[in-house]
Amino acid sequence: VFLFGMLCICVLLRRQWVDRERLTFPTAYLPLETTREDAGLFRAPVFWIGFALPMIIGTLNTLNMNVPTVPGVPIRPVDISPLFTSRPWSGLGYTPISFYPFIIGIAYLLSTEMLFSGWFFFLVTRMENVLGMALGFAEVGASGTASRFPFLGYQGAGAFLAITGAALWLAGPHLRECLRAAVGRSSVDDSREPLSYRWAVWGLVGSLVFLSGFCRLAGMSFWLAFGFFLLVYAYITAAVRIRAEAGNAWLFGPDIDPHRLLLTGAGTAPFGLANLTVMSYLRFVSNFDLRCLSMPHQMDALKMAGQVRLRQRQLVLALLIAVALGFSVAFWSGLAVWYRYGAAAKCGAWRTLMGRQPWAMLQTSLNDPTPTDWPGLAAVAVGAGITLGLTLLRVRFLRWPLHPVGYALANTGTMAQMWTPFFLTWVAKTAILHYGGMKLYRRALPLFLGLIFGDFLNGALSTTLGIFTGIAAYPVNW
Q1: Coil, helix or strand at residue 88
Q2: Are 111 and 421 in contact (CB under 8 A)?
Q3: Using one digit for the tens of pLDDT, what is the confidence trace for 41-64?
Q4: Which residue(s) pair with 78 in the sheet?
Q5: Maximum pairwise Cα distance, the chain
Q6: Neighbouring C-beta atoms of residue 37, cutoff 10 Å
Q7: CA-CA distance, 238 to 232, in Å (whole number)?
Q8: How many Å separate Cα 162 from the centre of its chain?
Q9: What is the DSSP letter of 38?
Q10: Under 8 Å CB-to-CB from 283, ≥6 apart: which residues?
Q11: Intra-chain end-to-end CA distance of the chain, in Å
């Protein structure tokens, strides 16, 4: 039901984002190019050069993991902050250098404004950390880094909410037409949409009511659950919008996710034991780790279906069947693997860490109740204000260089992994456009698409080989 609600939001926003605003959807570009009937991409020599680079690097690194005498090529994050030991630079915070080929490839599809904003705002967050250390703010505040200056998680939460708000405001006329269609007061043509607007509107409302009622039966307040899921859908809508504009291949949300934002706004005492406990079970839908959410992939699928003129209602049926099969296999395989090998002993520490995290937070909330975090709420407002301001400036000034999505990403864990590829690609793309114009840009495009294709294919092949042989495999994004 939760994922069906996401699909309804995608249907309501598809025409606005795909047909009217014409967002770029960078992650949909390569699948569309590789499935074209003329197969033109595979006939470009520079594509195979780009393809070979990550294949060679990935192969060497897989060999290095299993035979250390084989030299590896380090492209994964290396944190440079330990190099800065004196105050205030010791407060820099996690600042990794990385060279992910697939991120460089996807970044080439973005605008230079988006690329510049991404790495620029990330460096701004590092300077905020340094400023906090210089002024002594790093030592004050509630427990946990999120509640301390410069409140990056709170700024990110405000930015995510503002991105959703701005997107809904821009889509206002279209959404009002959808609402009129849902109550039979509009004859808008939705025959080519994945679902009729009536189905989408009432499907979303029904999903919210069902989820809230389900939580009510578990002991949670109905209206608290309803507001909670509205907040979750707002975060996820922002994630989809960010992916449609920035092409982030994997996305972390703000550290202050919907669960923690509610506790920030009201403190822990007003919720009571039952509400806090049920909210802990809901951490799986509100966690900062947004990489595996269905909604960004659903919107990409609808974008691609429109490009190849696929019957979108058949696609919706396929998506729903895939969800049912995916859940069934995931629940079974997860338990089977963890019980066979030992979740804590042999499996990835991340899995057990995520499993413990909600209950550790619940224990802290019960043992050490906290009041409303007014500085945190102020930082949420600041993040939202900056994002809305950047949005208005982009609307008013055609060549405004700072993008609100770049600011939002910089206040999450995503840009820490991506800022170096963004910077390198920004330099390369700026030079290409300056000296060769669009002609050279298009000639170089297959090279960067080859980086994406080669990086993911190498990761898939090495992982598959590791499954059947037991060797250590070099992963794509870690």
Answers
A1: coil
A2: no
A3: 888 999 999 999 999 999 999 999
A4: 97
A5: 72
A6: 6
A7: 10
A8: 16
A9: T
A10: 259, 357, 358, 361
A11: 32
DSSP secondary structure letter of residue 120: H
Asked whether 409 and 248 are in contact (CB, 8 A), the reply is yes
Residue 470 tokens read as 């037991």
Handedness of CA 116, 117, 121, 122 (dihedral sign): negative
Give CA–CA dist 250/417, Å, rounded: 10
Residue 253 per-residue DSSP state: -
The three-class DSSP label of residue 252 is: strand
CA 288/CA 254 separation, integer angstroms: 6
Q: Distance between CA atoms of 130 and 264, rounded to whole angstroms?
A: 25
Tokens in use for 205? 């409302």
pLDDT tens digit string along 100-119?
Answer: 999 999 999 999 999 999 99
State the Cα–Cα distance between residues 441 and 435, nearest whole angstrom: 10
Report the amino acid identity of residue 378.
Answer: A
d(CA 431, CA 312) in angstroms, rounded, equals 40
**CB neighbour list of residue 220: distance below 8 Å, 6 or more residues apart:** 274, 275, 278, 279
What residues form DSSP beta bridges with 289? 252
296 with 240: CB under 8 angstroms?
A: yes
> Which segment of 112-121, 289-298, 382-391, 448-457 scores lowest on mean pLDDT?
289-298
Nearest to 149 by CA among 135, 138, 134: 138
Peptide bond into 26 cis (omega under 30): no
For residue 179, which amino acid is it? L
Q: What are phi and psi of 289, to 5 degrees?
A: -85, 100
Question: Quick one: CA dihedral 385, 424, 460, 457, positive or negative?
Answer: positive
Q: Which residues contact 449 (CB under 8 A, 6 or more apart)?
A: 29, 30, 33, 41, 47, 50, 105
In the block, residue with structure tokens 């990550």: 54
Dist CA 310 CA 164 (whole Å): 28
Tokens of 435: 């000296």
